[in-house]
Write a structure and sequence with these properties.
homodimer; alpha+beta; Butyryl-CoA Dehydrogenase, subunit A, domain 2; Butyryl-CoA Dehydrogenase, subunit A, domain 3; 11 strands
């Protein structure tokens, strides 16, 4: 919806007039109902229209240092508003999510908020892992931002493999203190957001040693900087790690310890404890940590959907306005969205945005059920939940990053400009492939679960819901009845996934039988294992997209349900054709049958074509969230491009000083 | 080879010690012999060790304006050196290529030289399209850099579709001048490198009107800025377009004309002419322009190989130094290159770098032969050459960009840092997908040729060498003898490509028979057409990699030839498995046969593993060309990361001013 009344580009207006469904109905469904829509709009108004939170010039013109300083300025304004909302009791979890992670937060500080980790890691870790006494001591100070914290886990030498962390905390019973040290250069903490120059406290993960014994990784609250001067505390070596592909104002830092002493009660002791004499008391269960990792990965699935939503909105609107390359030589140049090759770039990204969002919501519910069962002491579905969250995180992040780049490239040279906002969207989206568990490692974790499941099935055991299909495939042996229906494609995906698991299992077993230990064998079968996990996740996505959209269609207008079914069909056909090699290995399809799938995909593209702009309008991204010359609601692309170019500091003066300094002497040297 | 004597990381040294071949032999072959190697080293020494051409701090810390100013400073130093070399007669074409486009040039000004277009477009266009008199007038001034030019073709509204350009040049016979105008906002020139604030002249492509008639696009030399003050000339609206994903110091500009008059003789008239009275004289042939486009595209193939070479060098060296995630729980953490999944990320990129380079060289020879024939008036091979250069440009640029990202992601979080240099490599590599003809448009141009060829073959006509296989496939109908040999994989690629062409042709014909005109039908078949062109290019790459490596093996040591054959096998198996869906559509392969290909690919990875570091060493990138904390020759990754982080201007002071300005007031607000 437009931010203010302005002239709308006629080409894009025509698209809106010709849509076959009501965009507002789409939006209300998409955001979750009237009430949520109102709250969303109110929050957007409060933050996006605050003049203090607007950029004077595009931040891509700033130096790294200026970018950080501007980031802190805005971050404190946002946090101040949050503090007020909290004092008034208006701070729901959705508000934090929107302002710190979501589309709204990244509209406000597009290269990342240096205070985010304070809210999403520092405070929750104290809540989750501190005793009641520790919570009393730290939480209100943290909530009120009298102290600002971060979460220091990753080190220069170790990220995904946590057990390899090197930072030590040695307990000294004489003073009842822990002594923190970074024994090597690779032991330096490296990456925590806000650590560089922003936070004055951190939860530090370190290897605990007490009474000469090692007790694994434990969390310690450490003061990093003086509360009044902000100077680093004694023994603390701290700074920022430097510029990055994206998330440029997050202030990721490094941190080294040299005999830094903290009181015993600075170890968060809800789980493990160290008694005053140095006795270690082991935790009853470590499952809660497991839960946090799943929580974050499940949340990331929805973030990937938003990234695809933004990228496809920008590219689709631009493709409605841009005219180029005649199709019919007797007619004017068409909107580039009329080129079928362009449709194949854009529309599958729209479909994935929708499928990922629905799957994210579905898995979110599943996660809540599983943690509910967990609290009852029922751990049955935990491995299943862990497995599906790992592979979905990997697949959705990889596809979202690739899809955002496809959208950028579909906008030609203009997509390459920072003002298109594609570079920032990609920088954010591709980071998800690495953080919270590197994607290949994630797939291998899922695969480990799948081969166990396969063995269970072989031995006649019962399987839980998300892997039930593996048993069915073993029993069926061949996939006989492919009829091209949507359900048949979903079933075929499962059959293919089951067979990929079979192949991984067989090669793993063969490798073991050749004398390799299970770990070596798993490494030698790494490629097959990741492929199996990939197909498992894709089969799950196919099924959840199918189930969710079929359900939704019962409760929306016929017009909207038609559109959603087009989206579903495109999603399934495109997913299948992108993996057609796997299908053909296990399912006997003729050239004609594959050709029919291709032709149906083209028919889907043609049906979606007249609704494409209206669908992305339905995602309801505020212009400031898109922050794109190419994607603005009014479609005045070229005018916006000019407007932004004119803001370049280089364009403020007709002649840059480098002319007199370098160019003129050089040009005149020969005269 | 190391820039200076320093401690070498023992893990990377061990790799070098264990290689089965001589790296120096690889390098001499790779760069083209002893003499070229010496010249390369001398040029590198002269430029890379010039202290004036080194960065004081990493340029990622600079603001956009500072980055430009630093770019101009270095560009004039480089051009001064070139001027001296030219005066001494030492300026061969290789020197220009290396300094302005190649790995050396991008090491000197890593975000792009604002003077490049002066050398690679402005000067050559005057040489190629100016009359002798015009060359006398402009060339020596241009060569001596008394004037600095650029090439202004692309407009805001039109890039790839040249005929759509809107800038007008109206001839006024009264004054014998052309009057240039930008009739709309979309008519503004947009993108030319160096146009923003650097060049004072341009070759401007504009629609010629004379005597009330339109005569297509013609080139005009236009003065943009005053030679002494650098102020824009009257009627010239000029500036830069703003920040971009990459090539950040190229100073891409915009340019609008309002009744700008230039003398008649400023139209470059080697081809078309306008006589004093306004009479238009048409050119004899427009093939020479065709030639320039092919020239650039052929050159780009080699650039894509260099991008992959750099990215794979960085990721491979890092993977030898980085240790993480145990394979065997009883052993220390392995070098991450020992993870098979990591090998599948890296080694195919190395293989592609080699295959693309060899194909680039091969096509370069082919191009020279074709232009030689052209000058004899023989146009026979021109369409074939055009077709192959278009699809190779598209495939190699897309694969190089994707491969560079795969390498980055294989380096985890550290790859995300600018100091890894991956973001810059990707920014450069992905730009090639768009410039010099957008990739989808390129594939469609190749496809147009292929369907014509197919029709010729159907009608029993003779085919030229690069498409001969299409006729063979038509005759054979089925691919009967797949035996898994390398030659068999190459032949299978051709068979698959031919069948993709058949499908595109059939659907195109069907579409026409349903009443669509040829252009509309081509649009409706766009997806099939691009797929056919893609497979055609991949079949060509497979054949040329096969032929070239088999040839090379006759002239190198047995040890090196073994390595190159491993590379060839990996390249072919990996290419085939990445397109296995297409293979299975047309060639009857069992699950076991596909599985055997997968197992052989894994065996290739294992054979390449001990030689990987030595192979990328063989590419012989100077440390400054890689400019990467992760990829330096000595392997001291973590020390370098620290060194670069310490250079951050934010790390120069322990407390940033934003603490007093924003953070402290915010934290103390509640107290």
């Amino acid at each position: 919806m437009p931010s203010s009344v302005q002239k709308i580009n006629p080409d894009i207006q025509k698209e809106r007039n010709n849509a076959t469904f009501n965009t507002q109905e789409f939006t209300l469904w998409w955001v979750g109902g009237e009430q949520r829509y109102k709250e969303k709009k109110a929050l957007e108004k409060d933050f996006l229209e605050d003049p203090e939170l607007m950029d004077k010039i595009p931040i891509s013109y700033l130096s790294h240092k200026e970018l950080y300083e501007e980031g802190v300025r805005k971050a404190t304004i946002i946090s101040n508003k949050i503090r007020v909302m909290r004092q008034e009791g208006n701070d729901g979890i959705d508000t934090y999510t929107a302002l710190l992670g979501g589309s709204l937060g990244s509209a406000l500080i597009k290269e990342g908020n240096p205070l985010t980790l304070h809210y999403v890691m520092f405070v929750p870790t104290i809540m989750g892992q501190g005793t009641v006494d520790q919570q009393v001591e730290w939480l209100s100070k943290a909530w009120d931002c009298e102290i600002i914290g971060t979460y220091a886990q990753t080190e220069m030498g170790h990220g995904t493999f946590l057990r390899g962390l090197e930072t030590r905390a040695d307990y000294d019973p004489k003073t009842q203190e822990f002594i923190l040290n970074s024994p090597t250069i690779t032991a330096y903490k490296w990456w925590p957001g806000g650590l560089g120059h922003t936070a004055n406290h951190a939860v530090v993960m370190a290897q605990l040693y007490t009474k000469g014994q090692h007790h694994g990784i434990q969390p310690f609250i450490v003061q990093l900087r003086d509360e009044n001067t902000h100077m680093p505390m004694p023994g603390i070596d701290i700074g920022e790690i430097g510029t990055k592909l994206g998330m440029k104002s997050v202030n990721n830092g490094y941190l080294g310890f040299k005999n830094v002493r903290v009181p015993r009660m600075n170890m968060l002791m809800k789980n493990s404890q160290v008694l005053p004499d140095g006795t270690f008391v082991a935790p009853k269960s470590s499952l809660l940590t497991y839960g946090t990792m799943m929580f974050v990965r499940v949340a990331l699935i929805r973030d990937t959907a938003m990234a695809l939503g933004k990228a496809s909105t920008i590219a689709t609107r631009y493709s409605a306005v841009r005219r180029q390359s005649p199709i019919d030589p007797n007619e004017p140049e068409p909107q580039i969205m009329d080129h079928v090759t362009q449709q194949l770039k854009l529309f599958p990204q729209i479909a994935k945005a929708i499928a990922f969002k629905l799957t994210g919501d579905y898995v979110w519910t599943m996660y809540n059920n599983v943690t509910g069962e967990l609290e009852q002491g029922n751990l049955d579905r935990l491995p299943e939940m862990h497995a599906i969250s790992c592979c979905l995180k990997a697949i959705c992040s990889a596809d979202a990053a690739a899809g955002a780049e496809t959208c950028r490239l579909a906008c030609g040279g203009h997509g390459y400009m920072d003002a298109s906002n594609f570079p920032t969207i990609y920088g954010m989206a591709t980071a998800v492939c690495t953080y919270e568990g590197e994607n290949t490692v994630m797939l291998l974790q899922t695969a480990r679960y799948l081969v166990k499941v396969y063995e269970t099935a072989l031995n006649g055991g019962k399987l839980v819901p998300t892997v039930q299909y593996i048993k069915e495939a073993i029993d069926a042996k061949v996939f006989a009845n492919f009829d091209g229906s949507l359900l048949s494609i979903v079933k075929a995906f499962q059959f293919v996934a089951a067979n990929k698991v079979r192949i991984a299992y067989d090669r793993l077993e063969r490798s073991k039988s050749q004398g390799h230990g299970p770990e070596k064998a798993a490494n030698l079968t790494g490629i097959e294992l990741t492929q199996a996990a990939d197909l498992h996740g894709r089969a799950f996505l196919a099924l959840s997209a199918y189930t969710e959209i079929k359900n939704i269609c019962k409760n929306v207008s016929m017009a909207l349900s038609k559109v959603l079914l087009d989206i579903l069909e495109l999603y399934l056909l495109d997913s299948c054709l992108n993996r057609i090699g796997d299908f053909l290995m296990f399912i006997d399809l003729s050239e004609k049958e594959v050709g029919d799938l291709e032709i149906r995909r083209e028919a889907c593209l043609a049906r979606i074509r007249p609704n494409a702009v209206a669908i992305v309008d339905g995602f309801d991204f505020h212009d400031r969230m898109l922050d794109s010359t190419l994607g603005c609601y009014d479609g005045n692309v070229y005018e916006k491009m000019f407007e932004v170019a004119k803001m370049s500091p280089l364009n403020r003066e007709p002649v840059n000083k480098s002319f007199d300094a370098y160019l003129k002497p050089f040009m005149k040297a020969n005269l």
